[in-house]
Amino acid sequence: MKIKIKVKHLVVYVLVPVFLLTAAALWIPGAVDRYQASQTPEAIRARMLEKIEAASGADKLERIAEFAILPSAYEPYTFDVRLGPRAMMQSDDGNPAPLTPEDRLPLLELYVGSGPPGDTLLRAANQLAYEYDALGQAEEANRMLERTADRLDLDGHADAQKLQQELAKREPSTQAHGKTPAASTFSGKLIDRDGSPVRRAGIYLLGEEGSESAEQNDPYQTVTDPNGNFEIRNVAPGFYQVELGLDYEQVDGRSRPVQWDDWIEIKQGRNLSKNLTLRPLIELQSPVNGQKLTEDTVEFRWTPVQGAAYYDMTGFIPDRNGLSGTGTVIRSRIPENRLSLPIEELYATPGASTLPDSGKWEDADPNYLLAYMNPNARFSWLVRAYDAEGRALSESSGYRLNPEQTNHLPFFYLKQRELSGTDRLLLKGRLSQALEQYRQEAESDPRNIHALRMRARLILSNVEISHDTEAKKELLPLLERLTAGVSAPQEAERMLSLLYEEADWDAYEHYYERYIRLNGGQIEPYLRSLHAASLFYRSRAGEAVQEFEQTLPDDPGHRFVGLYLAAQLQEGRTLGEALELARRYPELGYEQGGRGWPNLLNTMLSERSAGGDAAAFDTRLRTSLDEFAQNRAADPLASLPPTPAGSASIDAFVEALTNIR
Amino acid sequence: MKETERSAVKRKLDEELKLHTFAGQEAVLKRTHPAPRRTRLHALWNRELEWVLNPASLMGGTAALLLLAALPVLSYTLQSPHPAAGQRELIEVGGSIYWSDTYRNEVDRLEN
């Protein structure tokens, strides 16, 4: 092939571009350097301060507004992370805030003292009050707000009222306008993992969902002072959850051990004082950093936590997209900071049960089914520590942003086995074919535990997803055989939940016993509560009461307390006695504090005494409870509307019972 | 007679020169009438170059051109340090939250 080109075209189309590209390549690194140097927060901060310094009069105020007041990053209560029982979430506001609080304080004082009335002035006053609060100078903040309100008032400006309202919220409860004098206070200290105070952290009180005050979008809030102290005044009595607002540096490497059912009760006219502590994250020691394990026993080890009574260990199996989002508990109530797990027991531990979007069993994620038997999967794990009362103390998972925190990445491979041909088929998503092949393998070789286990697991997931009765019949003898060998409690647990849902009470009783044996004689509080509930449905209220009394102290959320109260009422306890019990075991759920059951019982009590015929009321209540229990005995997930009892308060109580599952 | 003689000489000369061809017109013209510089530059500018390409040199040439085109981008990428905190992304793996760049670097280091 020949190429002909004129010299002029060579120059214009080839040599000039080559020259330009080379020049650009040489120029870019220096230019990038210079640009980046000019864009560091320090450089931007220095430029802003210079510009403000250089200006004077109205111009200066305008620059202060532009650089130090209006950027959204300076709004009070802007934090990188909100940590609480409801969620651990990051703020998506990545706006930089180059000026430090020390830079802004005199600028805000200047603006509030001499800035023109308007939104910016209001904003500046609120920001300045927040800065004083963060310095522990709440009185200074009040005086500043008063002064500013007076200044605006002199000008006849309507914004003065807004500042007066802000002031009213801050005043001690006895002087507050329009509030009951007996409003309460929540105070305490936020302490870091090393005992030092955490300053400039947000403290939020979130009320119950649907309650009138302090919902998610408008919580009570304050900021900690330089000694970590905080105080929120004028809190309406009730149940609250405490959330923290922290910056990345404050949260990095720490855990705040809370559970979704952690609530505090603030009583009328009282101060509740509570210190909040950030704990160091537990460090996982082994297996970490992608270790490829080949031994028959896997040794898990982590740093001990002071005061820990036991630990729970959770494993994460990567899904078909390689994401490790859903974890399942591998072992709970581990008494020491290590666990030796024979590989066969790990193999017997199932992954999370998931419901495919299509609702079809064949679309279930095969990675969760093969679980820890996949030698190519990168598993990860975490550990949580609890005290003797079951309160979380610390955990290994959390923010690990500093490179030092990534020295021990919690992932590992289990290389003790190789994938079989059928496993490969399964991983390709051909579940039906794989099931058939596992069946053949298990039948031709009774010692092939893997094939038996996979067959049982595939059928179990089919039963869970499509509720196939034929598959369930096939499953029971398989699980019998499997649990005769090495098995994990999780398998019996899932079977148990399934039989409970299906109200297959004979088989359920059988598996309950088996589960207790497999779990070393222990019963998880949730399963014990379900068991107690099932006894109540099956007209064994007396036994139900005993079981509930065993488990209520171990279940801080008291999720099933309603059924306990119902069982007690059926056993002949009075409404007054039930009310006492409801107060002793408040139900603390997700976004719901503990007022529900006492309120319902109180309403019944007043309707009973107002109606005159107490005996008739009691009979109506008992009939309603009987009907509810019978419905549930046939279908424990039933949410049938109960037959109206002719009494609004009984109907409300029974309706609340139907919401318990 | 004179004419005849001249013709004879001419014929003889022609015969003797038959084997020679004069091809130096251009050189002679250049020497006798030298072209101005502008014209020479113009000629050079419009000169046609010709290359015979084999597949290997074709591929090599293409690769060199692509590399050259990518040079500024490469130099920018190599130069850019870690993104600033405001622009970094967080990822959640196994319950923990990491800066995605730190995490990926660490995983790459461990797995290779």
Number of helices of chain A: 23
Looking at the structure, what is the overall shape of chain A? flat
Proportion of helical residues of chain B: 55-70%
* Percent in strands of chain A: 15-25%
What is the number of E strands of chain B?
A: 3
* Rg over CA atoms of chain B: 37 Å
Number of domains of chain A: 6
Structure report:
The complex is a heterodimer of chains A (661) and B (112). Chain A is of the alpha+beta class and 661 residues long. Chain A folds into six domains: 1-39; 47-69 and 100-170; 184-279, Immunoglobulin-like (Sandwich), CATH 2.60.40.1120; 284-414, Immunoglobulin-like, CATH 2.60.40; 442-518, no CATH class; 525-658, no CATH class. Chain A has 23 helices and 22 strands. In chain A, a hairpin with a 5-residue loop joins strand 20 and strand 21. The radius of gyration of chain A is 32 Å and the shape is flat. Chain A starts with a strand and ends with a helix. By secondary structure, chain B is mainly alpha-helical. Chain B has a domain at 1-45. Chain B is built from five helices and three strands, in the order αααβαββα.
Secondary-structure topology with pairs:
The complex is a heterodimer of chains A (661) and B (112).
Chain A lengths: L1 E5 H33 L1 H14 L2 H13 L11 E3 L4 E3 L10 H14 L4 H16 L3 H17 L4 H12 L13 E8 L10 E5 L13 E4 L5 E7 L2 E9 L1 H4 L2 E2 L8 E3 L4 E3 L2 E2 L1 E2 L3 E3 L4 E3 L3 E6 L7 E7 L10 E8 L3 E5 H5 L18 H5 L8 E8 L5 E4 L15 E4 L6 H7 L3 H14 L4 H18 L2 H16 L4 H13 L3 H14 L6 H13 L3 H11 L9 H10 L4 H10 L11 H16 L2 H21 L13 H11 L3
Parallel strand pairs in A: 4-11, 4-12, 15-22
Antiparallel strand pairs in A: 2-3, 2-8, 4-7, 5-6, 5-8, 8-10, 9-13, 14-16, 16-19, 17-18, 17-20, 20-21, 20-22
Chain B lengths: L1 H16 L7 H8 L4 H9 L2 E5 L2 H25 L10 E4 L2 E4 H12 L1
Antiparallel strand pairs in B: 2-3
